[in-house]
Amino acid sequence: QLVYVMGFLSVVVAALTIVGVQSYATTKRDVIMIAIDDMRPELGCYGCDYMKTPVMDALASESLVFDHMYTGIALCAPSRTLFLTTRRADTSKVWLISPNEYWRRSGGNFTSLPQHFRENGYLTLGTGKIFHPGAESNNSDVEYSWSAECLPYLNTFPEPDGGSIYTSPAVHPVNCSDDNEMGEGKLALNAVRLLEGVAKKRSAGDTMPFFLAAGFHRPHIPWHAPTKYYEMYDLDLPLAPNLQLPTNVPPIALNNNWVGSKFNYSDKFTHNTTSAFPGYWTREFKDLKAVSVSPGMPTDGTLVPKNAQMKVRQAYRAALSFTDRNIGVVLAGAKRLGLYENSVVVLWVRTRHTPPPMFCRSLSPSLVRQRMLFTSTLITVYDVTNFAGGPRLSGAMLSALNFP
């Protein structure tokens, strides 16, 4: 079993043990890939016992947990393009969140990860935030990456109170009677609906393997989550132990912009302070603006009031626990439909943080050792799914690493 690992995003590879349900096996391994946006390595499996993420912690308990992973580029569209095409930003020419930087036009017609599965006989199904949505990916690369069964591609789902990333406060508990009324709850159900379509085909004798990708938006800001998830966490939880600016941090890391702007690698960073969305975080999220005690934050050393820090961290944790619940819905659906035991389950995180979390579980108890190949930028699952080769990698291949 070979798993190729992208060395810049957090990844879980977990092909789970056989369960007592009917299974429709194919000659190739199925793949269920779950993506999470902006998740920190703040889970029980990383020693944070105050976090309530039982689904991911259970997965980690069956996995090899990695402690040193790195972020290739700390912005959504460039990092997702890196993950899904294996091309660094300097190759894809995707540095920003910009409609002018769809990699097929800006850098080259590079094969995407789901496209590669599709071209090798897989049914490719997607929902939610896998590619950065919109013109930046030509509507989630629908022309090349996805099978007709999941089109039109559904990226977001309406919230019960009508909130969105453009209209909601950052801290946003929602009173609702059913988790499935939330946009992310609907996303999880849509992923299960796609799996139900696969199970229906399998019961009729279809043996085409599938690649399913479900991309959850939370815990990316704003922190939409039902109120009960906020109530899981007291406000009096650990705050950041170091409130000072990092030493010698490059200026580009200290801006209050959504997309920032291009910079040059040389003896020092150069940063153009103009941006498509200047002051985005404090302009769009009024509750953040209310606690921005200085227009020069964070570069002038002023701090967010402690009570505001506590509320924001509670909101992040609530949103992450809600995402954990939604991941459980998808995996439970796969079990119910008999699609779990033959699947490699991959969980990865598009993150701004270093190190992002990563853990990996072998395919079955009979596999005593599983080999992993590391590159500077890529994780795929070619040999696990029983087909060889793959698109050219942007980065050097390191030697194989065996682990128990």
Q: Give the rounded overall mean pLDDT.
A: 75
Enumerate the strands of the largest sheet in spatial order, edge to edge or round the barrel: 4-12-2-11-3-7-5
Write down the secondary-structure element order. EEEHEHHHHEHEHEEHEEHHHEEEE
- Count helical runs: 11
Q: How large, in whole angstroms, is the Cα Rg?
A: 21 Å
**End-to-end separation:** 13 Å
List keywords for this structure.
404 residues; alpha/beta; seven-stranded mixed β-sheet; three-stranded mixed β-sheet; 14 strands; disordered C terminus
Q: If you had to describe this structure to a student in words, what would you say it looks like?
A:
Residues 1-22, 258-278, 359-391 and 396-404 have low confidence and may be disordered. α7 (183-203) packs parallel to α11. The strands form four sheets. This protein has a seven-stranded mixed beta sheet, with helices on both faces. A hairpin with a 5-residue loop joins β9 and β10 (270-271). The two termini are 13 Å apart. It is 25% helix and 17% strand. It is built from eleven helices and 14 strands. With 404 residues, the protein is of the alpha/beta class.
Topology, please?
Elements: E1 2-5, E2 10-14, E3 30-37, H1 54-61, E4 64-66, H2 76-85, H3 89-92, H4 103-106, H5 113-119, E5 123-128, H6 138-141, E6 171-174, H7 183-203, E7 210-216, E8 223-226, H8 227-230, E9 263-264, E10 270-271, H9 280-284, H10 286-290, H11 306-336, E11 343-350, E12 358-361, E13 370-375, E14 397-403
Parallel strand pairs: 1-13, 2-12, 3-7, 3-11, 5-7, 6-8
Antiparallel strand pairs: 2-11, 4-12, 9-10, 13-14
Helix pairs in contact: 7-11
